[in-house]
User: Which sequence fits this backbone?
């Protein structure tokens, strides 16, 4: 995918942020769309189907957390990358952001060049993943890497991109005990800084969606979903 084909939706109620971030990303050749609150973000995302959404948390009408949750419920937007860009730096805010379905959480202020680097890192991983069409069958679950699709008992389970990547990584290495640094590197990449609690949040959500029975069954046939 060429840069001119990549769509990025910027969501912030501060015009200066939209202008500065939008300018720097436009200079990189990306197609930029904007929204000033969560409601506008959901509508714009439905219309444009962006590859990446960069969204503030605190906004009028609908905040970023609620907007993210709503976007994740829309099937055609399930694979869009969502990163928060916010002044809220508290641990609980970051956990809430990942719980809402975000792939990354970036705190303000951030220098434009560093933000552009983070955007490139996220999009680079997207390009790499699109090239991989491998399908796994683990414990009665089919995992399609190309379509980001999981099917269990003939029922499709929708997962946000980072949850899918984490699940795929764990399922692709039977019997392996993963270290947190390795997971952060393979799923989030060296250029994206997240905390160890991010992994715990994603694994908890996977257990809720996939089912605890599945994880117990997998262990029984030689698979270990363990993180140290």
Assistant:
């Amino acid at each position: 995918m060429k840069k001119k084909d990549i769509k990025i939706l910027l969501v912030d109620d501060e015009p200066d942020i939209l202008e500065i971030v939008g300018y720097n990303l436009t200079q990189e050749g990306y197609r930029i769309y904007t929204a000033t609150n969560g409601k506008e973000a959901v509508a714009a995302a439905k219309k444009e189907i962006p590859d990446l959404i960069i969204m503030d948390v605190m906004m009028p009408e609908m905040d970023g957390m609620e907007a993210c949750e709503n976007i994740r419920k829309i099937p055609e937007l399930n694979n869009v990358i969502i990163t928060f860009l916010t002044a809220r730096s508290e641990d609980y805010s970051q956990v809430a952001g990942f719980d809402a379905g975000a792939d990354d959480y970036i705190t303000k202020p951030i220098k434009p060049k560093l933000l552009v680097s983070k955007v490139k890192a996220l999009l680079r991983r997207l390009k790499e993943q699109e090239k991989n069409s491998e399908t796994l069958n683990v414990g009665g679950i089919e995992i399609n890497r190309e379509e980001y699709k999981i099917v269990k008992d003939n029922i499709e389970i929708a997962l946000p991109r980072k949850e899918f990547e984490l699940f795929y990584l764990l399922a692709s290495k039977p019997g392996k005990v993963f270290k947190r640094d390795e997971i952060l590197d393979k799923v989030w990449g060296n250029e994206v800084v997240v905390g160890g609690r991010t992994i715990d949040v994603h694994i908890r959500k996977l257990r809720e969606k996939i089912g605890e029975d599945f994880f117990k069954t997998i262990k029984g046939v030689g698979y270990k979903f363990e993180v140290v």
